[in-house]
Amino acid sequence: MTYSVQFGDLWPSIRVSLLSEQKYGALVNNFAAGDRVSAELEQLKARDFVNEAVFHREPEPENSQTAAPSPASWACSPNLRCFTFTRGDVSRFPPARLGSLGLMDYYLMDAASLLPVLALGLQPGDTVLDLCAAPGGKTLALLQTGCCRNLAANDLSTSRTSRLQRVLHSYVPQDVRDKNRVRVTSWDGRKWGELEGDTYDRVLVDVPCTTDRHSLHEEENSIFQRSRKKERQMLPVLQVQLLAAGLLATKPGGHIVYSTCSLSHLQNEYVVQGAIELLDNQYSIKVQVEDLTHFRKLFMNTFSFFPSCQVGELVIPNLMANFGPMYFCKMCRMT
Question: What does the pLDDT read at residue 62?
Answer without folding.
Answer: 53
